[in-house]
Amino acid sequence: MGFYDSLEKFEGFDLESFFKKVSDDDILRAINNTSIDELDLLSLLSPQAGRHLEAMAQKSQELTLRNFGRVIYLYAPLYLGNFCDNECLYCGFKRDNPIERRKLSLPEVEKEAEAIAATGIRHILILTGESRQQTPVSYLKDCVLALKNYFSSISIEVYPLEAGEYKELIDVGVDGLTLYQETYDRSLYRQLHPRGPKSDFLYRLDAPDRAAGMKMRSLSIGALLGLADFRREAFFLGLHASYMEHRYPEVELSVSLPRFQRAAGDFSPVFPVGEAEFVQIMTALRLFLPRAGINISTREGHALRANLIGLGVTRMSAGSRTEVGGYALDGKTEGQFEVADKCGVSEVKEMIVKRGYQPVLKDWQAI
Amino acid sequence: MEDTLVIAGRRISSRFLLGTGKFASYTLMKEAIEACGAHIVTVALRRVDKGSKDENILDFIPAGRILMPNTSGARNADEAIRLARLARAAGCGEWVKVEIISDNKFLLPDNAETIKATDVLAKEGFIVMPYFNPDLMDARRLKDAGAASIMPLGSPIGTNKGLRTRELVSILVEEIDLPVIVDAGLGLPSQAAEAMELGCDAVLVNTAVATADDPVLMARAFAMAVEGGRSAWRARPASAGRYAKASSPLTGFLR
């Protein structure tokens, strides 16, 4: 059944023992070979590979240039609502957090859309908490229809849906799905998502398959880095992406590397990921998945994002607000997470140009 | 003797076609087009944003070029057809490069869907230039479907590996009475020259130019190599042999 089979195969794999045996030769072979397998990916994620970061970065740049050119695609998130039935320990939107709850009315959606579109953004990612009652699929469809007048591409980052629901959204104009598994560690997943619909690990894990089966054009998957051992998480993310590429070759696949940031509540990351480790993850995944897009959101600061250009990243959010009503409305709510790169779209574009790359605002349109 | 490439009745002044993706800026792209003198330039319709207040790629295509939108992003014939119609409605003209890819990992074209789309679009009056896997039978089908040229790949898009499909492409050159334009995979001017020496009518390059450190200089280098390769083909090269030719041949006494 889906990616679960591959996950199960490696779940009991003793990473620690494997890492102990990784040699410099293993790492150099993984860097220099044109096609690398799962164990090569693990070598690149090993602690020892930290010594070869420059070589990994060089190879990552070469592959990214060849496959994507000197361009960075931009998009912006639009939070439609923050009602949520889940109790994810790390999330600002969790049910018990005493924050103001809100969902945008359709006229408000248009106001937000106008403000975002005025910055030049053409690709929008719409988000909600998980509340089938407050933000049902019918509401999402209405929002998509309203947003079509402002944007050339609309992606969703909402609770996992049934295949037929993905089809309904595709039919009204959605072309992309972003869905993070958060952690590929099943027992940790249970602890972090104790109650609510999100506690169903497998239903979430299979959602990208359901969307791809309905011909969703692009998919972005990811793990929330900081919740668990990042080497293991990055490895399973790589496996998941590779499975998706193989199973659904027509899908434009990307991986996202969200690093945990402070959110409303008192959760702090148990396995913080440093900048060098972050670069190791990104370049290792690039070497393993030369054709996959790599997203870096405004969770990362402006200076780091600038330095990551040329190392593997292909897509960035810009000018993001993670509050409901954050772009144009008064009385906006608290954000889902703290935005680190607070620069506007034009500043992000300038930064990209300064790095010798072209910011691309439109890369798809509804056909 | 005049040696001009003619496609769909139009005289094409350069046998070097340039793609416009992957450049660091539109200005650089424009300079590259001007430097190499490409007459036909391809633009991905997915990138064209006529309503944008931002830079519009079409404003950076120098005057006098033939704009050939491509259907990049199409996963099947139906999507390619819709993209082509959108391009025409947006004022991008009649030329279209049909590019149908249902495998994002290797970016190999889907010949069956490409033939279908070529058939429909040619009937609608488009000048159709299909990008395909070099297969002789499919090339014949494309010709029957109304293609204005055929564009076999040299190797997968963006790989810079050169003319790995040499044997198959040479069969197309011999058998298909349409311009044969090698598209995709050429990484160096010498590889473009190789395609031209083989008798191909033109080549289309994007990645190798756009991602070079100096794209303008590289564009010019490709154009020169294409011209050189073409001249070499026209000059009918002497055959290459394994052994040195003796200056006193053994059969000299028979003359």
Tell me about this structure:
By secondary structure, chain A is an alpha/beta fold. Chain A contains 15 helices and nine strands. Chain A has an eight-stranded parallel beta barrel with strand order 1-2-3-4-5-6-7-8, surrounded by four helices. Chain B is α/β, with parallel strands linked by helices. Chain B contains eight helices and ten strands. A five-stranded parallel β-sheet of chain B has the order 5-4-3-10-9. In chain B, strands 6-7-8 form a three-stranded parallel β-sheet. A two-stranded antiparallel sheet of chain B has the order 1-2. In chain B, helix 6 (about 190-195) links the parallel strand 9 (about 180-185) and strand 10. The longest helix of chain B is centred in the last third of the chain and has 20 residues, at about 215-235. Chain B is globular. The interface of A and B includes residues 152, 245 and 253 of A.
Quick tags:
heterodimer, A: 367 residues, alpha/beta, 9 strands, globular, B: 255 residues, TIM Barrel, 8 helices, 10 strands
